[in-house]
TrEMBL record:
UniProt KW keywords: ATP-binding, Nucleotide-binding, Transport
InterPro entries the UniProt entry points to: AAA+_ATPase, ABC_transporter-like_ATP-bd, ABC_Transporter_VariousFunc, P-loop_NTPase
Listed PANTHER family: ABC TRANSPORTER ATP-BINDING PROTEIN ALBC-RELATED
Source domain of life: Bacteria
Designated name of the protein: ATP-binding cassette domain-containing protein
Source species of the chain: Nonomuraea phyllanthi
GO molecular function, one term: ATP hydrolysis activity
Amino acid sequence: MTSVLEAHGLGKRYGRRWALRECSIDIPAGHVVGLVGPNGAGKTTLLKLASGQLEPTTGGITVLGGRPAGGRAQLAKVGFVAQDTPVYAGLSVADHLRLGARLNLRWDAAMARERIARLGLAPAQRAGKLSGGQRAQLALTLGLAKRPELLILDEPVASLDPLARREFMQGLMEATVEHEFSVVLSSHLVSDLERVCDFLIVIVDSRVQVAGETDKLLATHYRLTGPRRDPDRLPADQHVISASHTERQSTYVIRTDAPIHDPAWTVTGLSLEDLVLAYMDRRTVENRRVALEVRR
């Protein structure tokens, strides 16, 4: 299957600080990708590298088979909605559509006008007078009317109220079904990703922790609960993602492709939020092992 984004050993450094490092991922076309991680993890850096706004320090990245921002034709394939869905406060809604038409090779003026009318946005109204949800919808309209093959959105709904967030995500999903493009969506709101995304990337401490189709990830991750047991006593094919212990009980989140036969464990599946939180907590696993050794 064609890849919409490929990265190999990708890294970006600012002085001595790595914003992203050793990133190797392959995202097939046709997915809605959820990119999640804590603040400062490297999500925005990855998206800016993918859109050509930054150059890598190490490694390489291709988007839709080409170098990001590598010429006008390549730029036309990728739409980008930045964090906080910025628009020009002094320009009207109609001005934004005229600007979009002048800047984009494949601009769909009819779709832009129809969407603005359906949203109830007055063409003469200045963007600075719009609500946060309306500004987000205007920014999304500009991205969609570009008719991209890949639409990148960096935390587009973080500042919106629940109703505006739901309307934004619903509009995005309707557009992906109608126009069949790929999406990479960064968000802290796992509940939103759970509804719309079928591919997940988790970044923690500037590194990709896990990436893959959500149904396959959920089918290979489990929570094990049972009598206290050290991680080195688990089978080799059970990879520990996170762990917690009481005096008598251990709880692990593991990844495995093999059946779990040990009757000592209570085995349960994970929600997408459970999975994301386990990987975001992964850096504490070694500390917990050290704590166990000290207590022994």
